[in-house]
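Subject: Protein record for review, amino acid sequence with backbone structure tokens
Category: Structural biology, sequence-to-fold work with a learned token vocabulary.
Format: Residues in single-letter code; tokens as whole numbers, each standing for a residue.
Body of memo: The sequence and its backbone structure tokens, given next.
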Amino acid sequence: MSNQQTATAMETEADFLTEEVDAGPPKDDHPMALLLEEFDDSYVNQPQTGDIRHGVVVDKRAGELLIDIGYKSEGIVTGREVDRLEGDFKDMTVGDEVPVYVMREDRDGNLLLSISRARAESDWKRAEELLESQDMFTGSVSGFNRGGVIVKIGQVRGFVPASQLSSESQSQQLTEGEPDNRWMKLMDAELRMKVIDLDRRRNRLILSERVAIREWRREQKEKLLETLEENSVCEGVVSSLADFGAFVNLGGADGLIHLSELSWGRISHPKEVVSIGEKIKVMVLNVDRERKRIGLSLRRLLPEPWETVPDRYEVGQIVRGAVTKLVHFGAFARLEGDTIEGLIHISELTERRIAHPSEVVSEGQEIDLRIIRIDTDKRRMGLSLKQVAPEEESVEFDWEPVPLEENEAGTQNAAATDASSDASSDVAPELQAGVDVQPQAELDDEAASEQTEPSEEPEAERVIA
């Protein structure tokens, strides 16, 4: 055989051997390949500490759960982890799917799992999402201390400092007793909050009700301004009081009841009519969408007192009243149990001449008065103190309505007469005797006016029996 034939034969044998080596035994039947596949699968599926897996409860024993997480053996939830589940452990049954947190393997090779920590991890993730999105959420107060209240996001405890509570919640604090119990009234209360700070490493989660309420009210106010109509009636809660009026929360937005719209009577402060936290119905007076202001009224939903005055009062009636204000021409008095105020002209305070009503009455004083004039059209009532006769005196009066304008004119004439009398050096005998003298010119003018324009309401005459 030549050298060329020998080389060709050797190359053919080498190719055959190479094909045999490359082909080898069938891949599915090779034990090494199967071992490598099992190793790869077990390595990939092998749980690591800190993993959160979804498992299925395969067995429930006293104080222990066996959970299949797809590993070579079931994991165990036992001991303190079961205690942390509290009532949830009793409700769990075989076949339930639960999230678990991989802790470690014990000395016996058992994989220890925790359901509570898995839930906490999910809750921390939710808290992080809430911090990033700045979405509002609602939570229940589960605890408190002197510095604030505790609200949970699932299993994670969030803290709401006192400075981050809304004004409504702060008004609920107890001012008496132990400082640690100051927020007792907020226990189990539902609060609207936002996450404002989070630190997983320090287990720190800070919440704010004040920020959430501010944003929520802004959103609600926009909605209310679009839907509110003038003269409509709404229900709200008094949120705060000021010297000029009361603010009412209409469901996220505050409207103002001005002092003049709180009552038909005269009041000096809103606390005389309403109190913080009180639920009331109000009428919408105006809606300013540009300035985002809402004007409300309380008194317009109440009966107008003057409409029923003729049915409740009559001229000559004795009533009880409290002096509300003193002015130079008389005193105002509010009738007992009513918002109606009448004027006691200075000439109707006493028989003697006085310079100011304070010589006879004082603000806040309660006195008996007689009604001498009622004018429902002008919403005026004339009262008299001097015409309330003591019981021991047998005095009869012929009561007729007396216009307030005439009383005021009479007082001005009396004052002018006093001034002219003081200036004169010759004192008339009538003045020395205490008799009022009116200038002749004024008497002539009055006589002429009586002839041309007779008064519809003659002046009251007093007849002493």
